[in-house]
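Sequence in, structure out. Go.
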Amino acid sequence: MQEVIKFRLKGASAIFRKPESNNIYFTYNNVHKIIILGILGSIIGENGYNYNMLFKDKAKELPEFYKNLSNIKIAVKPNTYSGSFVKGMQSFNNSVGYANINDKVPTTLIVDEQWLENPSWDIYILGNETEQYEKIKEYLINQKCEYIPYLGKNDHFADISEVEILNADRVEDVKRVKKINSIFCDIEFERIKEIDLAAFIKPKSSSENKFIFKEVMPTKLDSVLGYIDYKEFVFTNYDLDIKESTDQLYQLNNEIMFFF
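Output:
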């Protein structure tokens, strides 16, 4: 049995920018691990990118929060019955000097961003014996933070609530697991039930709306390349037939979570 910290992470909006496009800023559907580590780091006062940029000798180093928290294992459960969150496009003007591409003719840069609307996740932190884990636990329980946490940008404040301390048991026999309640990766599986197209076209109720949502997200940070180690994560409410063993599944109450 192992201790787990659980809390709810949500906000009115969020953007976790994908690096593929510079014209329109698209967002990941789910908060990825590096963002979560950054949020935890801001709560306990770990320095980030902006601090490193103040010093020439630190500009190319990994941020402090990642150095100290990258060994933490987490699980992410999206709170949505459809597999993904509603997204909307926002346009705004950027008229600061360095956005002006022509110093003779005044111009205004128009930025288009894709935002998540009212996203919510349950975040689970697997207990370990580090000083950082104990500090995170203390700060979350007592509703303290050193820096204000946000969801991708400081325009999107993070709401952290429903902090609990739970006990988890590692799943020894994955053949008995039929559902994984969090996002997961690196697991070979087959669906026990075939997709019912009628559920997509006209679901009778939210509980009958079956989905399989897949998204490629980064899991690690490199000081030179930035996001690396991209993996395909799956989130589904279908019954699964898991084909191979894994030590990353834990049972908490009646739910199965994948820690990575």
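Check: Residues 33-44 form the longest helix (12 residues). The chain has a mean pLDDT of 88.
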